[in-house]
Amino acid sequence: MILFSFLGVISGVLVFVITKFEHAMFDNIILDSIASLQHPFYLIFTTPVFGGNILFDLSYGSYSLLMSLFYGVVYGLTIYFKKNDAISD
Predict the structure, then answer these.
(1) Which helix or strand (DSSP H or E) is residue 68 part of?
(2) Among candidates 20, 11, 3, which has minimal Cα distance to 48?
(3) Is 50 helix (H, G, I), strand (E, B) or coil?
(4) What is the pLDDT of residues 34-89, one digit of tens each?
(5) Rounded CA gap, 13 and 68, in Å?
(6) What distance in Å separates the CA atoms of residue 41 and residue 4, rounded to the nearest whole number?
(7) Which stretches are transmembrane (predicted)?
(8) How far is residue 58's CA from residue 38's CA, in Å, rounded to a whole number?
(9) Residues 11, 68: contact at Cβ < 8 Å?
(10) CA 18 to CA 25: how far, in whole Å?
């Protein structure tokens, strides 16, 4: 759960950054190949909660950043409760 949440945070930020710079990535082969990395991350971490971008009227880059915040909260709560379990044992 911790690894999945951490990867969710990283992927949301990665997709957001790539979408902000994708207009500059069209003519460069190296940057275009880096931009292709966003698709698996988007499918794994953002698509399961798809429909929220329509609900909040956000682009997919902004919605990925919002999902990154959500995964960050899940990551923080997981670590918090693991520490509490370790203290109570």
Answers:
(1) helix 60-88
(2) 11
(3) coil
(4) 777 778 877 877 777 667 777 888 888 888 888 899 999 999 999 999 988 888 76
(5) 6
(6) 11
(7) 39-56, 63-81
(8) 17
(9) yes
(10) 9
